[in-house]
Amino acid sequence: MATPTTRPAQLEPQEAATAELTVDDRGELLRYMLLMRATEERALNLYRQGQVPGSYYDGRGQEAVSVGSAFALGPRDRACILHRDLGAHLIRGVTPGRVLAQMMGRLGGVTDGRDGNMHFGDRHLGCVGMVSMLPDMAPVACGLALAFQMRREQRVAMTWFGDGSTANGQWHEAMNVAGIRQLPVVFVLENNQFAYSTPNELEFVRDPVERAAAYGFEGVKVDGNDVEAVFAAAAAACDRARAGGGPTLIQAETMRMHGHGAHDDMSYVPPELFERWANRDPIELFERRLGAEGIETKSIHIAVEDELERETAWALAQPMPDPATATEGVFATEDPVLGDGHAPWSRWAPRAKEGPHA
Amino acid sequence: MATPTTRPAQLEPQEAATAELTVDDRGELLRYMLLMRATEERALNLYRQGQVPGSYYDGRGQEAVSVGSAFALGPRDRACILHRDLGAHLIRGVTPGRVLAQMMGRLGGVTDGRDGNMHFGDRHLGCVGMVSMLPDMAPVACGLALAFQMRREQRVAMTWFGDGSTANGQWHEAMNVAGIRQLPVVFVLENNQFAYSTPNELEFVRDPVERAAAYGFEGVKVDGNDVEAVFAAAAAACDRARAGGGPTLIQAETMRMHGHGAHDDMSYVPPELFERWANRDPIELFERRLGAEGIETKSIHIAVEDELERETAWALAQPMPDPATATEGVFATEDPVLGDGHAPWSRWAPRAKEGPHA
Amino acid sequence: MPELTYLEAISDGLREEMRHDESVFCLGQDIGSFGGAFKVTEGLADEFGADRMWDTPLAESAIVGAAVGAAVEGMRPIAEMQFADFIACGFDQLVNVAAKMHYRQGLAVPLVVRLPSGGGFSGGPFHSQNPEAWFLQAPGLKVVAPSTPEDAKGLLASAVRDPNPVLYLEHKHLYRRLRGEVAKGRYETPLGEVRVARPGSDLTLVAYGAMVHTALEAVEDLDGARVEVLDLRTLCPLDREGILGSVRKTGKVVVLHEATRSCGVGAEVCALIAEEAFEDLDGPVVRVTAPDVPIPFSPPLESAVLPQVDQVREACRELLEY
Amino acid sequence: MPELTYLEAISDGLREEMRHDESVFCLGQDIGSFGGAFKVTEGLADEFGADRMWDTPLAESAIVGAAVGAAVEGMRPIAEMQFADFIACGFDQLVNVAAKMHYRQGLAVPLVVRLPSGGGFSGGPFHSQNPEAWFLQAPGLKVVAPSTPEDAKGLLASAVRDPNPVLYLEHKHLYRRLRGEVAKGRYETPLGEVRVARPGSDLTLVAYGAMVHTALEAVEDLDGARVEVLDLRTLCPLDREGILGSVRKTGKVVVLHEATRSCGVGAEVCALIAEEAFEDLDGPVVRVTAPDVPIPFSPPLESAVLPQVDQVREACRELLEY
Ligand SMILES: Cc1ncc(C[n+]2csc(CCOP(=O)(O)OP(=O)(O)O)c2C)c(N)n1
Ligand SMILES: Cc1ncc(C[n+]2csc(CCOP(=O)(O)OP(=O)(O)O)c2C)c(N)n1
Ligand SMILES: [Mg+2]
Ligand SMILES: [Mg+2]
Predict the structure, then answer these.
(1) Which fold has domain C3-181?
(2) Is residue B13, in this structure, part of any structural domain at all?
């Protein structure tokens, strides 16, 4: 039944070779992108209705990056997911309702109101939640990979960061350490052209992907709006890492199609630049490709819409946390609990029969 | 009277072209290397005699790097000098006696006993003293260069660091920022093969000089035991910086011929490696070259020996600081005082008639 | 005198300093044409150019380190952390390079680091912190925390002119909620002097930053008690005499801050009083602070953690009755 | 029981933990075949291999960050800072990532960071610091500071087994100067409990780390006064009841530490006492600490700054006479 994809552009042949996607897999890729967009649109509405306290950040336009890359992960792999990468959370198994509850600071959200926005990770699903300081998860991902390497487990740690983060010292320390120990870690650099209002020119002189070679590992650049290209690069990187071939830096070129946060009107973005990327919407691009191959996608849209309605209702029914619990849990009394995540790619799991929501 | 040197090996022709050394200049290079070695030998003796509290670190075998590079600086340039670079201090005008007093924690030392070892810089001579945290002076040097750039002054900031320091996040942040703003800063990377006991293989996968291109500026590798090669690279880098051409990373290959500190027996250094470099002593190499050109150096040796005797006597005559002053000066009451340094290269100053000790 | 918000007062102060002295410049993330995450620097890039309003990359150590280098070369850099929380990423340059420079080698480092700090608006664990106490354990740094628009401008001027590294804590929650009269032109509010925000003789309530307003609200009508509210303004160096003088008069003291409890500035103030004014004390030295916990995001949790007016009132009342 | 130095006790503790549990490993600069800057880890690479004794590059954030990642995956990393002073370079990973992990997402981070700290041997401003107080202002971190070989080993075991990030301050000046009996095999000294280093009833002298020995020496013969010396052992969480119980008994307290004064651990202890034991106090709560100044290099300056036996004796005597 497996239908190999056409080889994505911009990748070395041998890298794409390992990544086989079935028609169902491709449907899943679309579904997760749609689910990410729908969830974020819903969250933005809730924000505008005053249901989301604090600020609101999303990954509009970047759906292909987080979905394409996280889709390559196996259940026992681990992920440190960043603020534009809701798709990765969904793939690991976080339900949209929990995301919405998280944004609203409610119980049932991933952090039960302790943290907000995208600052979360479900430890039961193999995720270590990001902190705001960027890119602090890069060294942490190295530590996860170090544990795998020391225990001789064929597992991978994946983490994401933006173009802005590459200027930070922790980025360098992580890259260098990953190279020296040839750690099984995959770094996904989401170049969405800006760090808040700061354009690439003020962040670096040359593409950070070029640094990978100097750190002693592979750097590949992919079209971040082509979900299959991102997937292929990620799958190749994961395979390499699992085989003891060390880290990979994947630079995915994309564009942040919303403001840095909901408060940001993006006045600093040149309209031509915005237009150019608006014509390359990752979901539209992918649907067009699927359509050209005669693959039906309407049912996926309907399923996602239904799911979102149910999930939103669920989220809105969650209570706020009890103030009396505010000081609990500063210290742990038990050892780490890091469970396995969902891994919807058909390589990892037989397609679930009950429906798309694994 | 100016006798141009033969062009040093390992450098691009256009880079060496600017650096003209007279015979007297070359004598000065030798003199500073001898003075550095003699001062450090004396300090080590004082340490062994119990006159130097705390630890003792030196730059044995690395004389060509600090002397060759600092010699290219002009008086109004600024320097953040590191722990293997006594030669640079001497060139800026710190007398050996003050260095010895510094090591012994006495008044008259550069920090009057406040700090020890090589943790100093004479602000009156355009130096900002290093801190122990490596390589914290790299961002500071960028800040000095930023001031020059903002004020449109044709001045250069130079700083040094070891191979080990290149693994640190601050190194990266400084390189990246220097590249983005094309700051007039010269980075001298002293690769002495080890960071304490840690060999290059555990510090990085590829030579850090290769990273320079990715940061958007020149990286050059020189024989760090050839004082003229180092000088030529530094002079070219300074010229480039002054002309608005941005930063340079000079990787000088050398070897730390003493332990990390006086307590360290270097048992981790493979004897062959040590031997190989022992045969390439920078002072001997240079004297041999001068000798082959018929240039006399004996008088320099004698002058250095004399100077050291006088300076040591002076240092030993300095008192210890008064404990009552220990809590003074935490806060400044006046604005920064950063004076100009000596610049013995004949480009900067007519050769002083009175003798070699400028 | 014009009425300005706390935020406008800071902007105004920055503009005055930059007009007054060419060597003053700003650096930080998005502070240039974007005007900063909170729009404090809005318009400054237009007036002073991109060079004096450097949009840096995301690199706090480089920001602080470059500020140190520029400062020793005679510039007067004002670095902005996008949130005070990010100072943890530039920490080493502050506590090891900037703080110890003058003591070690007599070289002054006139820089200011602006720290938009504090919570109260669901910023969560990484956008609500009050990191001031760390810097009292790093001799060589000064720390100020204005509570009014007037002081915001005046303390900024003093911080910029001071030859030392000064951490300037501006409370985000006051930015647009607080207005007050602010004199035009340059003026300086001296460092190291408390302000009596409300005079009194029955109890001294010590606070700083946003908590000064919580304090004032709490004691506005406390069964007729005359509570003196001290606004510390400068946290380092502390105005020891200012504090002790008030306590000697009242004999009772509550210390209030938003930062977490252990080893906070409140601990220092209490220790100072317990040592130097013991004989004048008519009751325990009481602290009202956030407990030792990260600042949670969700409103009910956050308000359970941050000191509230009622809590302060209750603490004062209890001590008054002691 | 064998007599070990303080340093040998730490080494012994590391060896026991690594033998006992395969998931325990060490990382840091030069800790492998070289055995660490102070030779604390000497021999461990021979026994456990280079993989479990990782000679890292000079990158403190990566060291702490990698330890966090490995810890949440079920390893028990022990990171070494070459000197405690360098923790400023890995600060952010500790206070923002490690400290807040459990509160935010219920994920435990069982890591230990060893901090060779303290002065007394002309280490100068960058090799003599005592950074413990910073971490009390970063909820979620535990902090221990053993003063004896016995506790050095026992607290290390507890720190390694604890599911939280623990900062382990080992005082360099005790390494080879102090010997004591240390039991063979594994044992744990519980976190959060003070030790009565010397019982007494006239005055409580609170100390930790190397200063416990200064304290004991100072009160050995104090005109017959019975001074109780409390060794805090754990600085976070503080043993509130242990401290308050002693003060309630004696009514007088001197708090001693080597770290600088403002917002130090001593400030917290004094504030705690001034609030919770006010009624039991028979005199001011006195601190003996380093003043707020970087630790100078030259011996006469350094000893003027670090608390000396005479100073402690004088402070106790004065308070006893109060
Ligand atoms: C260490 C640190 N400094 C500053 C910030 C404030 N900040 C939040 S997001 C952001 C821009 C990040 O840009 P980038 O890495 O490109 O990620 P993007 O938001 O574009 O996905 C900044 C500066 C931060 N989060 N961390
Ligand atoms: C941030 C930091 N971490 C650790 C140290 C401890 N330390 C002092 S020197 C040194 C090795 C430095 O190696 P390198 O940069 O190659 O300089 P070298 O001494 O070889 O000249 C280390 C690890 C330090 N000084 N700074
Ligand atoms: Mg970006
Ligand atoms: Mg080296």
Answers:
(1) Rossmann fold (3.40.50)
(2) no
Ligand 1 — pocket residues by CB below 6 A? A 84, 132-134, 161-165, 168, 190, 192, 194-196, 256; C 29, 58, 60, 82, 86, 89
- Burial of D308 from C-beta contacts in 10 A (0-12 / 13-18 / 19+): middle
**Chain B residues near residue D297 by CB distance under 8 angstroms:** 53-54, 105, 111, 113-117, 119
Write the CATH number for B265.
3.40.50.970
Q: Do D66 and A142 touch (CB under 8 A)?
A: yes
| C280: helix, strand or coil | helix
The token pair that represents D252 in the structure block: 């007088």
Cβ contact D285:C284 at 8 Å = no
User: Which atom of ligand 2 is found nearest the CA of B62?
Assistant: 21
| Catalytic site includes residue D102 | no
DSSP three-state, residue C54: strand
Q: For residue B204, give the nearest of A167, A180, A206 by CB distance.
A: A180
> Could you tell me the residue ranges of all domains in chain C?
3-181, 195-320
Within-domain flag for A327: no
Residue type for position C260: T
Neighbour count for residue D291 (Cβ, 10 Å): 15
Range of the structural domain that residue A69 is part of: 18-317+337-349
d(CA B169, CA B175): 10
Q: β-pairing, C234-236 with C142-144?
A: antiparallel
Query: Tokens for C263?
Result: 């080893």
Q: What is the DSSP letter of C180?
A: E
Note whether A39 and A308 are within 8 A (CB). Answer: yes
Whether A326 maps to a domain, the answer reads no
3-state DSSP percent of chain C in helix, strand and coil, to 5: 40, 20, 40
Q: Is the ipTM of this complex over 0.85?
A: yes
At residue A349, the pLDDT reads: 77
Give mean pLDDT, residues A220-235.
Answer: 98
User: What own/partner pairs with CB < 8 Å and gap ≥ 24 does D273-277 have?
Assistant: D273/C274, D273/D243, D273/D244, D273/D247, D274/C270, D274/C271, D274/C273, D274/C274, D274/C284, D274/C285, D275/C270, D275/C284, D275/C285, D275/C286, D275/C287, D276/C284, D276/D240, D276/D244, D277/D244, D277/D247, D277/D248
- Each residue's pLDDT tens digit, B329-358: 999 999 999 999 999 999 997 654 444 333
Q: Which CATH architecture has domain D195-320?
A: 3-Layer(aba) Sandwich (3.40)
Specify the pTM. 0.97
Residue A6 domain flag: no
The answer to whether D153 and D12 are in contact (CB under 8 A) is yes
- How many structural domains comprise chain B? 1
The answer to whether residue A81 scores a pLDDT higher than 90 is yes
D237: preceding bond cis by omega (within 30 degrees): yes
Distances (CA, A) of B86 to B26, B65, B125, C95: 18, 10, 14, 26
Distance (Å, rounded) from C-alpha D234 to C-alpha D135?
Answer: 12
Q: Whose Cα sits closest to atom 13 in ligand 2?
A: B195
How confident is residue D260, by pLDDT bands cut at 50, 70 and 90? very high
Measured in Å, residue B139 CA sits from the centre of ligand 4 at: 19
User: Same topology for domains C3-181 and C195-320, yes or no?
Assistant: yes
Contact criterion met (CB below 8 Å) for A180 and D103: no
C-alpha–C-alpha distance, residues C41 and C79, integer Å: 11
Q: Could you report the per-residue pLDDT of A104-163, keeping only the tens digit for each?
A: 999 999 999 999 999 999 999 999 999 999 999 999 999 999 999 999 999 999 999 999
pLDDT per position as a tens digit, B109-124:
999 999 999 999 999 9
**Nearest Cα residue to A331 out of D95, D243, D109:** D109
pLDDT of B90 above 70: yes
As a whole number of angstroms, the distance between CA B61 and CA B255 comes to: 6
Q: Is B169 helix (H, G, I), strand (E, B) or coil?
A: helix
